[in-house]
Amino acid sequence: MNETIVKKVNALPPLDRTIMQIQSICLDENSSLLALVKVVESDPMLMANILKSANSPLYGFSREIKSISHAISLFGMSTIRGFALLSAIRNTIPMNLSPYTISNEDLLTFSTLQSALIAKWYAKVDTSMLDVLQPASFLMEVGKIIIANHLIESKQDGAFKEELSTINSLEALSLLEEKYVGFSNEEITAQVFEHWHLESELIASIRYSNNITQAPKEIEPYAKALHIAKTTINIFGQLDDDNVAKALSLVATHHLNPPSYLESIEFLKQ
């Protein structure tokens, strides 16, 4: 176990009051859209970051989204919560993804693509799962920020990059992360969200997304969806034919509406 990584996670400051309020509203079945709008609008910087995420061309909206109420009506509360949490993370943890040979913007693009794929695909698979899958798909790469930070500080980034250049699978990447820091991205992401007291379903869905056979039965459907999203879009390739073919095989095996998956892929490629 890498004690330095554990200490980094445990030293993260608590989520600020605005993010906690957003969490509370989004998890309350009786809350209103207006309540969420008011909380987000009380924090101009957060509002700007959420609107920036919402206006990504990857979501395919033809008109600019100019208000939080418009963003929530289009995306729903769970996605807005994901945007807000990512904004908090970017303000809390220094970001330099160079050990993964990607930029900070690349990570945001991957996260947005994964989230957009899940949103479009699961709208025709099981909409009830989106309350967990939407924020989880947008946030499941967060551990890479902490891993990269540690690799740079410990001057292991060069060696990590060299080994990274020799692999091309999610399984090999997890093993490489574990070799250097003792944990995979998924485990560190789960630890971060445990530290911030997010709901257990979201945490477990991310934790088991590369280890589905070990997932509790109630978590398995969520972990499968996240794994397929990561197989489709990751640091080795985004929506390329090989990734899509691998992912489509999993979609078919798990009976998760292959036509809807392919339709979602075509939408994202436009």
Could you name the key traits of this structure?
Hypothetical protein af1432, 67% helix, 16 helices, mainly alpha, single chain, two-stranded antiparallel sheet, 270 residues, globular
Summarize the topology.
Elements: H1 3-10, H2 17-27, H3 33-41, H4 44-54, H5 68-75, H6 77-92, H7 104-122, H8 130-139, H9 143-153, H10 157-164, H11 170-181, H12 185-195, H13 200-207, H14 220-232, E1 233-234, E2 237-238, H15 241-253, H16 258-269
Helix pairs in contact: 1-12, 2-3, 2-6, 3-5, 4-6, 5-6, 6-8, 7-8, 7-14, 7-16, 8-13, 8-14, 9-12, 12-13, 13-14, 14-15, 15-16
Structure description:
The structure is a single chain. The protein contains 16 helices and 2 strands. It has 270 residues and is mostly helical. The chain has one domain: Orthogonal Bundle (Hypothetical protein af1432), CATH 1.10.3210. The protein has a two-stranded antiparallel sheet. The longest helix is centred in the middle third of the chain and has 19 residues, at 104-122. It is globular.
CATH topology: Hypothetical protein af1432
What's the multimeric state?
A: single chain
The profile of the biggest β sheet is: 2 strands, antiparallel
The number of helical segments is 16
Mean pLDDT score, rounded? 92
Listing every helix as H and every strand as E from the N terminus to the C terminus, the arrangement reads HHHHHHHHHHHHHHEEHH
CATH H-level superfamily title: Hypothetical protein af1432
Assign a percent range to the helix content: 55-70%
Number of domains in the coordinates?
1
CATH class: Mainly Alpha
Percent of residues in beta strands? Answer: under 5%
Based on the coordinates given, report the CATH architecture. Answer: Orthogonal Bundle
Radius of gyration (CA) equals: 18 Å
Q: Total strand count, please?
A: 2
Strand order of the largest sheet: 1-2
Category from helices, strands and their pairing: mainly alpha
